[in-house]
Amino acid sequence: FPRLRLSSTLFRTGVLLLAMVACSQVWARDLAADFREPPASARPWVYWFFMDGNLSREGITADLEAISQAGIGGVILMEVDVGVPRGPVRFMSEPWRELFKHAVAEAERLGLQMTLNAGPGWTGSGGPWVKVEQSMQHLVASETQATGPRRFNGVLPQPKPRPPFFGPVPAELESARNEFYRDVAVLAFPTPATGPGIADLDDKALYVRAPYSSQPGVKPYMPAPADDPTSSGIVQNSIVDLSDRLDPNGVLTWDVPEGEWTILRFGRTTTGANTRPAPQPGLGFECDKFDPAALDAHFDAFIGTLLRDLGPRPNDRKAGWTMLHIDSWEMGSQNWSGKFREEFQRRRGYDPLGYLPVMTGRVVDSLGVSERFLWDLRQTAQELVIENHAQHLKALGRKHGFGLSIEPYDMNPCSDLSLGGVADVPMCEFWAKGYGFDSTFSCIEATSIAHTLGRPVIAAEAFTSDSGEAWKLYPGNMKRQADWAFCMGINRLVFHRYAHQPWLDRRPGMTMGPYGVHYERTQTWWPMIGAWHQYLTRCQAMLQRGQTVADICYLAPEGAPHVFR
């Protein structure tokens, strides 16, 4: 019997080895076939920009036919306003939506894939349909001093919204920004002697997250100082909650105990983040990234409207409108919303109310305790952005057969790796060498995401450039940087950019203002571009078939925000 069992084991092992050899031979044959005739799925893509109402039906057809004939596999579509004079087709009007339907139909006819940005402009998800109460919000506070013992009966100043990161909001949104306010809490505590404050409060409390790639000095993560157990501030147990003593007119009635007291009135207001650089008819607030209901409303008003226009499409479609996209996170951070307190309490296990003075730069109990509260705040914010915005958008899209691509970098209040991990297609960006910023860190991030989570496609917004490019780039001087991108692990180039050409008889035609390489059918070298795209497609086909083998695994630290480089 032992001999029979051994023979059986050897037989099964032999069969398994033969099967493995056969599979290896089939895989090798498939690889060779893909090299000779690369699949359409390996073709490069382009960003296809509609320039603020400058659209035409014949131009859309001509663009997509030229894109297909040149060996490009898909487009990421956005409509933007970067200073080009407005055209006649108003964004989201009935004529605009008819042209969008035509673009989808033409993409289907030509076998092209189309990805649509999650909102107008390139920043995120918002528009004129987003009500101010469903916009991104932050916590604000006003301060009043009182001396006891006496009865205090007076108006607490209503806290003002902080100035938006990118300066004044569009005039259409300014009145709503100033008018929206909701009370959160009123807290009082014995006024402490001057003590230590919180360094880098605006960053640590997520009032500000500046663009890492373009603004010098932005920290890749929030380093916590060494805890000083001797540091003291407000004693947490001495904080008095007076929220129920504030009337609707902002009048507080309170019998002040003996001594000097500080009263803080906390509220929430909009951050002012808006859809930039959206066409004027698409200007509006960015929706609340902590609230799935806010995203639901935005999705229905924008993507839902377009889906209803198009009518039913098979969820397993391989051409036409197949994906949604979150571009580089340029809407900044938020640190509050209507349900943030209860979400914080549920996730962190304690009520943040007694630590809200930390949000004004004050120390509660000790510097270490205050820093840990801010850590918890950032962790909660990250979880809400990922779960209630990115993952929720992915789930909404799945119901209609959409995949999701994400560029998770720049002003992201989360860990870039965590946000990008939600994507079906993680994306990065590299600027044309000598014509812009250094965002190569995002390429390391995207490839790391894909390699650890098993994403077969790693896309890059490729050859972004500033006005210095001035028609200087062409395939011959782009090849070296493209090869570098392949060595980084990128396996789908998405050229920035192809500006929609509404005319059939004008050259060089429409541009994207000062941005991007001029990668359109109106270029002098466009008729000769096929061989360049064939080379890229062959490289990408091989890279998309391969699996990464890495000698070193580096465990990224926890924390948010966090840029990995």
| CATH topology description of the largest domain | TIM Barrel
Q: Main sheet, how many strands, which sense, barrel?
A: 8 strands, parallel, barrel
Order of helices and strands: HEHEHEEEHEHEEEHEHHEHEHEHEH
Q: Indicate the low-confidence ranges by residue numbers.
A: none
Mean pLDDT: 94
Spatial gap, N to C terminus? 60 Å
**DSSP, total strands:** 14
**What class do helices, strands and sheet pairing give?**
alpha/beta
> Which bin fits the share of residues in helices?
25-40%
CATH superfamily of the largest domain: Glycosidases
Largest sheet, spatial ordering of strands: 1-2-3-10-11-12-13-14
Task: Give the amount of beta strand, in percent.
Answer: 15-25%
How many individual domains? 2
- Name given to the CATH architecture of the largest domain: Alpha-Beta Barrel
The top level CATH class name of the largest domain: Alpha Beta
Q: Compute the gyration radius: what is it?
A: 27 Å
Shape: globular
Number of helices: 12
